Amino acid sequence: MNISDLRGTDLNLLVVFHLLMQERNVTRAAAKLHLSQSAVSAALSRLRSIVQDPLFERGKTGMEPTARAKELAGPIALSLGHLARTLHPEEAFSPSDSTRTFHLAMSDDIEAVIAPWLLRRSIEADWQVKFAFHQTNSSKWHQSLEDERIDLVLCATPAEVSSQYRSKAMFSGSYLCVYSESQRGASGPLSEEEFREAVHLRVSFDAQRGFIDELLESAGVQRRVPLSISHFAGISTVLHENPAIVTLPDYAARAIASTAGLTTSPVPLAVPTFTTSMIWRVEASASNDRSWLMEELQAFQGAERVKAASA
Known about the structure:
By secondary structure, the chain is α/β, with parallel strands linked by helices. 44% of the residues lie in helices and 22% in strands. The chain contains 12 helices and 12 strands. The strands form 3 sheets. The protein has a 5-stranded mixed β-sheet, covered by helices on one side. A 5-stranded mixed β-sheet has the order 9-8-10-7-11. Helix 1 packs across helix 3. The longest helix has 23 residues. It is elongated. The N and C termini lie far apart (56 Å). 30% of the residues are buried.
């Protein structure tokens, strides 16, 4: 298809579609577009005829997009963003002049390293922008991005990211064990026997099973886990008072051990590696302020590598 073939297509229909994908409600989309509900409904009807698909169907919580709508959402949002930026170029974003609040969603293990690093950069550079952190995890990242306030999600890289979103790897990692030397009465790297026989603390968003359970059971070992918690914040208190060990992402293990006076040890078994990525809505790609934020967060990758190498 040539660009000239679009001459008979009303590009405003794509704007209506984009707002409907965001709002999943004709009334709210109409309000944002400053149009009547009937005008939005008519535009949707015309677009349905063009793409030969219903695009939206009634669901329990509102208008549910069809598979075709989900397929179209990303490319349309990206194209509209590029067009808006071309016709109405934004001024370069200055974090020293803006009072913008950026909203980032992540689990508290990532927060434990990103928050202090980002605050330190903000103080040193005298930024006026602010940052608000929200809780999520790698199973709920897409739910977080349904909130229009959220600029970015940081989480373990999902197996699949739909066309509505974009992702970019920030850093890679593996796992370390953390424990209290005084409680365990020992120091130095854990042996495989010590690891297998130890009392373990489990950290999991649903306080259920974790990958270490799977790893040990595949080797015929049932580990002893009398306590599971859903957040990383309580780890140091538990370990200071008990001769237990916990297995954490290495960046979180180093941060918690450093601030809480605990000890880290390599996991004495073969453990997987993973990547942590930032994820955002496609339409956010055309925003100068969010682009600035993503560039700043990319700097964390290099800083984390230097820190890990010197640890």
